Every structure is written in structure tokens, then in C-alpha cells.
UniProtKB/TrEMBL annotation:
<protein>
    <submittedName>
        <fullName>C2H2-type domain-containing protein</fullName>
    </submittedName>
</protein>
<dbReference type="InterPro" id="IPR013087">
    <property type="entry name" value="Znf_C2H2_type"/>
</dbReference>
<dbReference type="Pfam" id="PF10075">
    <property type="entry name" value="CSN8_PSD8_EIF3K"/>
</dbReference>
<feature type="domain" description="C2H2-type">
    <location>
        <begin position="223"/>
        <end position="246"/>
    </location>
</feature>
<feature type="domain" description="C2H2-type">
    <location>
        <begin position="266"/>
        <end position="289"/>
    </location>
</feature>
<dbReference type="InterPro" id="IPR033464">
    <property type="entry name" value="CSN8_PSD8_EIF3K"/>
</dbReference>
Length: 299
């Protein structure tokens, strides 16, 4: 079995299973620890781990670290790789170049470089390298989509296309299955439902009778749109409203021409309800949470 066939089979075997990636890394790390740090011949063959050369061994080792997004260990591994191996291996240099781009969080350049490696006409790169770069690119793409979904309720299609180095039509097909939708003017992606947050209101507070005033509608807390006076329940709904009603119909060609929506939002420190009126939050706190503090609230 030649080295390209072996490495491709190894990557295929681990790409979909994080536990398998970890197991493979343990095996490679164990070999490194037991083989010593003597200067090695880059053409020699490590025995006992199923690879045909040190070039192949370190290519697999570095590729798996980057695939796992363990970039710190990838950096330390690169420093440990013997100079003769690094100097003689084009595959290692390519992998480390894309690893450095991820370390620097230069995602646009990373996707551009990965695309060039994968789609190069008359591709002279080995299949094993193309495969692992493809797997790394797909995992980074999924990772960034998750980050964007957790941080944004609206984002420019043009910005995302530039970030991922893909056509606009591919941006839509990538985000729509993740609960995003294209706005009427086709320039923005809007999240169709509010993402779950890492910090949630404790169940004991949610079930507390102290919140019944707001639930019954006797003392509703709302956020006012600064453009049309519409009142909404959450900041997320305000952003969706602003995008759909005030931004989607605009035909702007310069980022500086987009109007700025400024709205002060005050939140309750106990249960997290919000309002654009400070006095409403103060009243809510005194009425519902007096047991938590004796001093008057200062928002």
C-alpha cells in the first residue's frame, strides 16, 4: 500500500468520528514519546504504526491536530518535527501554512488557500492531502456557521461570501438549513428564531410567582423601535423588525449609508426581562424582586 492510499484511508476512517481521531492521535503521540528525539533520516520508515515514512507520519499527525482544531498542539508539533523532514516535505509545509492562518484567525485567507489546494487544475497534490484539507475546510465552515448563528440575528450575504470565499448562492444554501432566511432585497440573512443562549434564567426564578405581574400583562416590559415607535418584547424581535421593515427595502451601495438604529435597553439583573424605559425596569424590580435586595435599585 503506497503512502497516499494509506493516509487517505486513515483520514477517511477518522474524519467523521472525534473519538477515532483522539484514538489515532494517542497512537501517534505514543510513538513519538517512545521513539526518542534523535535526528532521523526523513526517508526512513517508522515501524509498528502502519506508515511508510516519517513524512507520512508527521503529515498524518499534524493533519489530525488541525482537523481536531487543536491548534496549540499543532504549533508545538511543528516545532518538534525534525528539520530534515520539514525541509523535504511539501505536504507538511502546506498543512502548516493553513494551520498558521487558523491560528491567526485569518479565515478568509484560510478558505481561499484551502480552495486553491482542492480545486487546482491538473492537481498535482496527493489525494491524501486534498482529502484532509477538504475535511479541515468543512469542519471550519461548520464551526463558523455555528459561531455566526450564536452571535448574530442578521448578517450581510456579501460579508459571509467574502469570509467563506464562496459564491452568494452557496451562502444561501449553507445558511438556510440552519434556520436562516434571505431578506426581501436579497442582501441580508436573518435568523428565523432566537438562538439558545449559554446563560439562562434559573428554573426557580422562571417558576417564581414574582413574575406573574409581567405574565398577566398588568405591567408589560417592552422595547420601543426608535424609527416607528412599535413596541416589541425582546431585543431579538427588535432587530428582526428593524431588518424587515427599515433595512430590507433600502438600496444602499455603501456601508456608511446604512442608517444607525440606536436604542438603550435596560435589563433586570434578577430575571433578565428588558425594556427601553429605565423607570419600567425599576418599577418591575421593586414590585417583583424586593426579597433579593433592600436598597433601591439603580439601573
Amino acid at each position: 500500500m503506497n503512502k497516499d492510499t494509506f493516509l487517505a484511508n486513515a483520514m477517511i476512517g477518522v474524519s467523521a468520528d472525534d473519538q477515532a481521531v483522539n484514538d489515532q492521535l494517542v497512537e501517534l503521540e505514543l510513538y513519538e514519546l517512545t521513539s526518542g528525539h534523535q535526528l532521523i533520516d526523513p526517508k526512513s520508515c517508522p515501524t509498528g504504526i502502519g506508515v511508510s515514512s516519517y513524512d507520512e507520519y508527521y503529515t498524518q499527525f499534524l493533519g489530525l491536530y488541525i482537523l481536531k482544531m487543536d491548534l496549540l498542539n499543532a504549533k508545538f508539533l511543528w516545532k518538534r518535527i525534525p528539520v530534515p523532514v520539514k525541509e523535504s516535505s511539501a505536504n507538511l509545509k502546506i498543512l502548516w501554512n493553513i494551520g498558521k492562518l487558523l491560528l491567526r484567525k485569518n479565515y478568509s485567507k484560510f478558505f481561499e488557500t484551502a480552495s486553491q489546494i482542492i480545486q487546482q487544475p491538473n492537481n498535482h497534490h496527493p489525494e491524501s492531502l486534498i482529502y484532509i484539507v477538504t475535511q479541515i475546510g468543512q469542519r471550519q465552515q461548520r464551526h463558523l456557521v455555528d459561531l455566526i448563528t450564536s452571535a448574530y440575528s442578521c448578517i450581510s450575504v456579501e460579508f459571509v461570501a467574502s469570509l467563506f470565499c464562496i459564491p452568494v448562492k452557496d451562502v444561501v444554501s449553507l445558511f438556510v438549513p440552519q434556520q436562516w432566511e434571505l431578506t426581501a432585497n436579497g442582501k441580508y440573512l436573518s435568523l428565523t428564531q432566537q438562538p439558545s443562549t449559554m446563560l439562562e434564567t434559573p428554573p426557580a426564578i422562571l417558576s417564581s410567582p414574582l413574575l406573574e405581574t409581567n405574565r398577566s400583562g398588568l405591567n408589560p416590559l417592552t422595547i420601543r423601535c426608535p424609527a416607528c415607535e412599535l413596541r416589541l418584547a425582546t431585543a431579538f424581535e427588535l432587530r428582526k423588525h428593524a431588518i424587515a421593515e427599515h433595512l430590507a427595502s433600502l438600496d444602499v451601495h455603501n456601508q456608511m449609508d446604512i442608517p444607525c438604529f440606536s436604542c438603550d435597553v435596560f435589563t433586570c439583573a434578577i430575571c433578565g426581562v428588558a425594556s427601553s424605559e429605565c423607570s419600567a425596569v425599576e418599577h418591575h424590580f421593586r414590585a417583583n424582586h424586593s426579597a433579593f435586595i433592600n436598597d433601591p435599585i439603580k439601573v
